[in-house]
Amino acid sequence: MALLWMLNEDGRRYEVRSAGHSRRLYTNGVLHSQFNLKAGVSRSIWDLMAAPSIFMDYEKASALALGVGGGAAIRTLQILKPNWSIQGVDLDPIHNDVAKAYFGLCDSQVNLITADALQWVPSQPDHQFTFILDDLFSDTGGEVVRAFPLSEHWLEHLQRLLNPQHFVLAINTVQPEDVKTFQGFFKRHLNKCFILTMQGYTNRILVSASLDVSARMLGEQMRSRKEFKGLRFRIRSL
């Protein structure tokens, strides 16, 4: 892989590398984003994070991406929903800079904020987003881990930010116990719940929706779109 850019700062090493048409962001040796410049999507797990937005047929809406990294999931969301306004929040200002400089997040409809999501989310007004993507990860010992455990307290904060009548929430996790936490919380609120997985990844994309939708509907819509052609994914209801 060709090295396009590198920075060592405050004990952290950042690299942007290219492999064919793929552009990748590594922080401390951990892959934080991958995007295929030719395809216009990531061709990887980040596409699954944005995919549930296709449940929603709104021409315009507000979306929130918690955890920007290099912006791969946001780029896919832009392809799927080009007229949506998107707010991205990342704790690392260098991630936001890289997302703009190397992954093309320069659109006026995308606003990137440097903030700690744990503090930022509780401070925001209610019911302002239709779609929320939680991809809050960090790196520990060369491994990628969630920035903090998924809890019902955190899910309550996310639910408060969502439009109660029409929303989709997608959360990326690698922890099996998070599935039970997620399912238990949203089943009590009578929301539909799904899980998306992809061959070659341990990630689980947990999805909740207030809409009358099903896992089969999402799977069929994804397979019918060119953006997801060739992705080896599975989806099932929780």
Describe this structure in words.
The chain is of the alpha/beta class. The chain has one domain (42-237): Rossmann fold, CATH 3.40.50.150. The protein has helices at 45-50, 72-80, 93-102, 117-120, 152-161, 176-188, 215-223; strands at residues 2-9, 12-19, 22-27, 30-36, 62-66, 85-90, 110-114, 131-134, 137-140, 143-146, 168-173, 192-198, 204-209, 233-237. Strands 7-6-5-8-11-13-12-14 form an eight-stranded mixed β-sheet, with helices on both faces. Strands 1-2-3-4 form a four-stranded antiparallel β-sheet, covered by helices on one side. A hairpin with a 5-residue loop joins strand 12 (192-198) and strand 13 (204-209). The radius of gyration is 17 Å and the shape is globular. The mean pLDDT is 94.
List keywords for this structure.
7 helices, four-stranded antiparallel beta sheet, globular, alpha/beta, single chain, 238 residues
What is the structural class? Answer: alpha/beta
Uncertain residue ranges = none
Task: Give the distance, in angstroms, between the N- and C-terminal Cα atoms.
Answer: 39 Å
Provide the helix percentage: 25-40%
The CATH topology assignment is Rossmann fold
Can you tell me the CATH class?
Alpha Beta
The gyration radius over C-alpha positions equals 17 Å
Q: How many β-strands, per DSSP?
A: 14
CATH architecture: 3-Layer(aba) Sandwich
Give the helix tally. Answer: 7
Order of adjacent strands in the largest pleated sheet: 7-6-5-8-11-13-12-14
Secondary-structure element pattern, one letter each: EEEEHEHEHEHEEEHEHEEHE
Q: What spatial form do the alpha-carbon principal axes imply? A: globular
What kind of sheet is the major sheet? 8 strands, mixed
Strand content: 25-35%
Mean pLDDT: 94
What is the fourth-level CATH superfamily?
Vaccinia Virus protein VP39
Question: How many domains, in number, for the residues?
Answer: 1
